[in-house]
Structure formats: structure tokens, C-alpha cells
Amino acid sequence: MVERYALEPIKSLWSLEAQYKRWLKVELAVVWAYERLGIAPKGTYQQAIKNAYIDVEKILDIEKEVDHDVIAFIKVATSKMGKEASFFHYGLTSSDVVDTANSLALIEATNIIISEMKNLLKLLFEKALQYKKLPSIGRTHGVHAEPTSFGLKFLSWYSELKRDLKRLINAREEISVGKLSGAVGNYAHISPLVEELALSKLSLKPTPVATQVIPRDLHSNLINIFGLIASAIERMAIEIRHLQKTEVLEVQEPFKKTQRGSSAMPHKKNPILCERLTGLSRIIRSYVHTAFENIPLWHERDISHSSVERFMFPDVTTTLHYMIVKAQHLIKNLVVFEDRVKRNIDTTKGLVYSQRVMLKLIEKGLTREEAYKNVQKLALKCWETHSSFKNEIAKSFSHLLSKNEIEELFSPDYYLKNIDAIYKRFEDE
After folding, report:
1. What is the mean pLDDT of residues 341-347?
2. pLDDT, tens only, 137-163
3. Which of 95, 62, 310, 317 lies closest to 210, judged by CA?
4. Is 136 a catalytic residue?
5. Among 257, 238, 256, 258, CA closest to 248
6. Could you say which of 141, 212, 300, 403 is the most buried, measured as most Cβ atoms within 10 Å of its Cβ?
């Protein structure tokens, strides 16, 4: 976890103290279940709560001796307990505690991310509505194609992230499981009923079939969805980076009065936030592959996944949370130069209306092949000479097209005629 890209409240979620508190929560839930079932004497749970002790430095010191973090934790957590210590970690293995606690952490982190995603979606939809009727040039392959609605950019991002939110909510349900079934997951030393009771106290469900660990495909699915969200944010960032190019300059990311864009060139306003989001997206996606690598483990379990997850879970959640919060700032404060958006439609001097001209000529009786060849010939001429496409059409087809018809053919408003139909798909948002 890089401090620079770690924001609260997720940052504190992955501290060692928070981790040990989650471990303790799992252990105490099991003690509670033992008492509920009459296995532990009445009052055991309350005594365990009262006397449980966590000291991060002491745990770390003992870990240096025993070279096992869970054993070190148990020794410190029970160091002030009496008889109740007999039921602490009784019938459990380390992965029971660690995996179940990780589920709690991932659920909490996912809840925070879901909340911030909803805030981002709200901002995107507001911008989509604001720029719904603003004509802009659509680009394919980086080349001017045809006019479209500037608002559709935001609506497209909104729609994608809405799908990702749905996926994330489903994944949260999938990872809301724990595992308290012992060394190889067969309940030899702990009853399934103990697991069921303890996990219910933690608002979790039992993993249907576990080995010594919770199957890692559940985590992999979650991380994969995190990668989709990061990629959606990067798609936004890349579009804004292009639109902020000097020769395009349709938008500009937020730039503070005291901000400086370059140590050498005082005039610079660089899209540093968008570039940062692009880079962080690569980090998130790199963990998608890593999460898949964690699925195949030896037999009932090895620990090849363990070191990976100590990096992956904190990094992927804090980084994605940071990206979503910064994306909110980006979208909320994005500067849109509407005059430049409109003016850029005419950069090619009318060539972007070539399809509409072709279709009109077909309506007038030309075959598609004839219309395409004639329009392309004039378009290529205009590319080379930088002349007005509308003037060339007027000269070549005045016998088929009236002045009014030609003016209508070169109107960007035509391309917005069905935009309302797209927006109606989101009218209940």
C-alpha cells in the first residue's frame, strides 16, 4: 500500500491493529457459539471479551520467536485470560481465522467502494444531462467521423460503471462467506453447527466446500471486477487526455490557482490526474492476473497465496478507492469549452457530413456505388486541397440538390435527432 494513493477510511482498514481486531472478532464469535451450544460454560464469552488483549508490538516481538503470526496473536490475545482461554482457537486452524477475517475486511472495503461508485455515477449522469444537446465531433481511430452528442460520452461511462456496480454487488454477496471447519475443512474437531452460529454472528455464510482455505476463485472474481472498474475509469481518463490536447482543447481537467504544471515551462497545464488514473489502472489490472494465479493450490492448501494477498488485498482496495474518489473530483470540476467543442466539428471543412450526402444522393436515384465513388472523389480532393466540402458538393450536385437541401445536409443538429431515445433508457435513474 503506497501512502500517496491511500485514503481513509480504507487506509486504516489494513493496519496491523485492524487486522488483529478482526482476528479477535472471529475467535470470539467461535467462543460465543461454543457457549450457545453448551460446550463452553456460561459466561465464557463475556470473560473472553473482558480479558482479550491486543498489543501490536508484543505480537510482532513474539512472531520473531515463533515465526508464525497467528500463534503470536493467540499468545498475546489470551495472555490475560483465565479458563476461558481453553475455548479460544479451540478446534480451529490458522486459515479459519485469517480467511474469515479477510472476508470481513474485503466486505467492508467493498462497501466503501460501492458507496463512492454511487457518488461517481451521480456526477456522470448529471454531466450527461448537462451536455445532452451539445453537438460534438465523434472520432473513430482518432480521426473525425460524424457529429454526435457530447453528453453521450458521459452517458457511456455512466452505463459501463453501472454494470460494474451491479457486478460488484453480486461479488460482495459471493465473498460474504467464512470458513471455520478445521485443518483440512472436514469438521473433524469442530461442529458445522459451531461454524454456522459463529458465522451468523459475523453476518457471513459458511463456504459450501472448503479445504483448509476458502476457495480463491471467490477472491479472483472480486479482483477481476475491480479491474473492470479501473479500466472504466481509465477509459474516461484517456478520452479526457485526448480532448485536452492543445490542438483539440475541448476540455481541461481541474487546475488549482496555486498549481504548477511544469518545473521548466510556466505555461503548462498538463492532464496529470488523468495520467495518474491511467497508471493506477495498470496496477489494478496486474493484480487480476495475480488473483487468478492464487486459485490453484497444492492439495488441501499451501501458502503460496498468503504472501501475495498481504500485498494484493490492501493495494487493490486502497488504490481503486483512491481512483474512484479522484475520478469524482475530475468529473465534477471538469472544464468543458463548449465553443471549441462546436468549432472542432468544422475542422475538416465539412468532410464529416460525407455519409449523409451519400445517402441523400442515393435517395435522389444514384446507386450506392455511384454515390460512394462520387462523394469519396470530392472528399479526397478536399483532404488534399483543404477546400470546403460543402462548396464542392454544391458545384457538383446542384442539378440534384437545392441550396436548402445542401444546408440541411451540413447541419450537426441532424445527428442529435435520436439522442432522446438513448437517454430514455435511463429515464428512471
Report:
1. 96
2. 999 999 999 999 999 999 999 999 999
3. 95
4. no
5. 238
6. 212
pTM of the model: 0.94
262 is catalytic: yes
Selected catalytic residue, list 141, 267, 386, 399: 141
Candidates 20, 115, 14; CA nearest to 60 is: 20
Cell of 278: 491511467
268 pLDDT above the threshold of 90 = no
Predicted confidence band at 231 (pLDDT cuts at 50, 70, 90)?
Answer: very high
pLDDT in tens, 376-387: 999 999 999 999
What is the rounded (10 degree) CA torsion for 278, 284, 285, 286?
Answer: 110
Q: Output the pLDDT for position 264.
A: 77
Given the residues 262, 286, 402, 411, select the one marked as catalytic: 262
Which among 79, 81, 104 has a CA at the least distance from the CA of 29? 104
Report d(CA 376, CA 370) in Å as an integer.
10
> What DSSP string runs through 379-427?
HHHHHHHT--HHHHHHHHSTTT--HHHHHHHT-GGGGGTTHHHHHGGGT
Range list of H helices, 86-216:
94-130, 151-174, 192-201
Q: 237-261 pLDDT, tens per residue?
A: 999 999 999 999 999 998 888 888 7
Query: Which domains are assigned to the chain?
Result: 10-90 (1.10.275.10), 93-132+149-190+197-332 (1.20.200.10), 351-409 (1.10.40.30)
Q: How many other β-carbons are positioned within 10 Å of the β-carbon of residue 315? A: 20
- State whether residue 82 is helix, strand or coil: coil
Question: Residue 56 has which C-alpha cell?
Answer: 501490536
